[in-house]
Amino acid sequence: MPIRVLPDFLINQIAAGEVVERPASVVKELVENALDAGADQIVVDVTDGGRTMISVIDNGCGMSRADLAHSVMRHATSKLPSDDLLDINFMGFRGEALPSIASVSDMTIDTCNGADENGWVLDCNSGDIRPSDWDAGTRIRVKNLFAKTPARLKFLRADRAEMMSVLDVIKRLAMARADVGFTLNNKWRFPKNQELSERIAAVMGDDVRGRMLAVDAISASNAAMRLRGFISEPTLRRASSVDQFLFVNGRPVKDKVLVGALRAAYMDVMHAREFPLCALYLDVPSRSVDVNVSPAKTEVHFLEPSHVRAFIIKSLRDALARTLNDNIAVSRPVESVSPAPQPMNFTERGFRVCAPHRGPDSAFMFADVVAHHNTASSPQVVSASASIDAGDEYMPLGRVIGQIGNKYILAQSGENLVIVDQHAAHERITYERLRRHAIKVQPLLTPIVVSLRAEDVAAVLSIRDEWRDSGLHIDAFGDTAIAIFEKPADWDLNWVELFHDVADEIRDHGHSAQISERLHLKLANYACHHSVRAGQKLDIAQMDALLRDIENTTRGGECNHGRPVYKIIPLDQIDGWFERV
Question: Which domain holds residue 128?
């Protein structure tokens, strides 16, 4: 078959298949154009889920007659001042959106730049440009979407489903630009210059108020890399990733590196099948990220993805690691701050330590910890009253009242009732202590040789430093095998399966969480099996010691499985239960 040059209308329709997947794609492209035009008020109206009509009105800079004529030409854009594709500072830049949309719909554009004597209207079907009475900004109306390609109409979902997709686009753009006002169908409104915390509550729901943690970090290795925004407390989670909003240089993205880093940061405070909420804004030099990798502009490629991932994980873990006493430290008079309680010593606090399990599930790094437990001096009873009286006003979990069901500790903090799950609290304390101990490494007299495909060997060795940090010394053994020279003590795994899983993840995402996940599982299992149990009776001194230690334990609000450690119930809420209002 001879090669032929495709006609323009077919070229535009093919491009539309990449850019315009559904009505939400049209709204995204048009609203991004409005943002690039400097608009701070954008009004969107959608009829029948977008298939009948989409209207986007903005108060941006508008266009002259010449620019209006160029706007519907393929690859014509005002957003690339030079020919450098690595220097992109606008939401849109491809110059395909308007001609692609026009090729599959009936589109008209009204615009005025304020400098011309009148506005202009373009009928994209005929190409005619006429004077109009439009006096500011731009209005784009898209009617009969996919009317020119009726086969694509059958792939649209129900109007309500398409409308929800449009709303999701508006929410993501509203989160990207809290300084801009957005209105959708005169029903969903996000006022301009809204505080980010208020915009988050408006988008995610009122249940996030007071339960989001601020993040603001600058990379130690690259001062131009900054992460800011908010993440949810671990006890605030969703069944899906619907409320995860990630931005790179102001652009909403769904990037595997960012999603993987978010998951890794919450690994030891949230169940793997649950999802945290977030609004995170990553700023990096434009030359360190390539945004020109997908027609929809929702994916990016980082120049150094491993550095970006490590920076995000550390920043988020630092935010999650704030203790209860850290949160109130700013309100303490400097001269009255008493020394922080020392980390819990199990025997000195009067806790009975379970005998260490020597089976295959025993953790590989805890020999020193267990030895310390077994050789510590005889238990010393701590005076409960002395412990409570010291710095009483700075005890967030308050004074111990008693124990109920041999499971929960009851305490009073000001006008609040505090209920603490004793097993979850001690489990978190134990887990954090274990994390601080060095990994016990076992040199092997005879290396373990694992045969793999050559591409798997290359992928596994690409994160050689991460293996080393986890106690594994590995190296290539020819082109199709890996030799293990050192491994963590008591860590006997199916090495072929582990290396295959790691290699698959690296090829898919550029990184692997397999190592840290398995390490976390070891730690979590040991901490769970060697902590105070539900059903174990504690005395006042033991309960008070547990509360004081959890106040100074990082990530102390949740156990290793993501369950809450404590609940604080205000007195006025209790009054409501008994109708004392």
Answer: 8-189
